[in-house]
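Handout, section B. The chain below has 98 residues.
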Amino acid sequence: MSRSIKKGPYIDPKLAKKVAAMERSGTKRVIRTWSRRSTITPELVGHTLAIYNGKKFFPVYITENMVGHKLGEFSPTRTFRSHAAGGGGAPAPAVARR
């Protein structure tokens, strides 16, 4: 279920304040954030955010294509270790002899 249009997108107030301060000063630094639930707005485009994934901060450069998505979508929390390449499971059935 998506968020109500009446409410608007959620962005963490601290994150919005940091981005606004960087816009005023004209500097470009990496902003560390724990707010994975924040929606990417057009004001964030062009900035680099270090998004926490539960273990470390994952640097992400925000582009126009990311607007409307959540920050957490770009910082994976789980690592997929591929399945074994064979050799596991039950042996193949033997051919019936007559």
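Note. The mean pLDDT is 88. Compare this with the example in section A.
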